[in-house]
Amino acid sequence: MKIYNHYNSFKYNLSFLFMQAIFKYNLDKQEKESINSFCDSCEYCSIEQMIGWTDFFYKARICYFYLLDDSGIKSFCQINESFKSAQIYYGPVCDDRELVVLSLNEIISYYRKKGYFYLGVQMYRKTGYDTDYIEYCINKKNNIKYKFNNQNTKSSIEIDLGRSVEEIWNDFREGHKKSIKKAHKMGVTISRAENDSDLEAFISIINKMCKARNISDDGFPIKNLKELYNFLVQRNKGVILLAKDSEGVIVGVDMLVYQGSSVVMYKGATDPDRRDLPISHLLIYEAIVKAKNEKFRYFDFWGYNHFADEHDQVFYINQFKKGFGGYFSFFPKKMNISLIPQGYYVCMFLTFLKRLIYKLR
Hints:
This protein is α+β, with helices and mostly antiparallel strands. It is built from ten helices and 15 strands.
């Protein structure tokens, strides 16, 4: 554990004088409970920053960082470490822009002192004044490289749930409205997953769709789905919705994840053998209504690739999402921070070598 007391570096507020920046590789029970409680209180909190979530997807060396004062935790993030490079995925978790700046400065200083050569930071915030301010403050002191591509530039489509269901419906494309009405007439119903049999159906449909379309599952942890879903339910961070045909057979699934004030359409699939039914249209519509009824502020389609062209299947997924109306939301571009001269390029070169060696094995 590393603890730093600050007496000269805090320029924004005298209260910063009494804060501690803490870096640990293991957390005790009380720390986990405090961090979970803090994350639950934040508007901007990606599921990727929830303790234990990444364990379902990959194994990595995780460093836990948090800012602490007498009143409790003020900022938190998980940092993935790998051979002198570090990554922050959708963090730090903190609604206060000044404390985000402070957090990032402390993290940069920490890894620079450890001899790391690169830190990547993808914040989970919408672009605007606060994110511009954060980036300005960090850029004043650091060498940051920005890349304008799908890996370094994140955006999505979002629906404002502060409007009435009728107003939201009116923004839908006419074809989407007809498909939703058709699904209702054909007896398609929506319910939530309740048992292992439902989860097995989820797995089956995901696998079946990926095979039929010859697409990747994007690293989704199918083998650990039951444990992952228990994690979501126990933390009240999500739900799986099921679409059933008129005979009660599950023909579509959609995993929704709760991230602060947003509901995210995290993973969905439909049975490729049931193209006679407009399953996805009704699943998403019911998910939007559910999110509104539960008082969330936004429904997030979790991704819109502006770089996809008409020859890419993602292009048509984009068009489908846009048919539900909404508006584009953008995240700040990923900050590729060199902690040594040309550190970003050193990291890219080593990553290339690693992938090359993996292919040659």
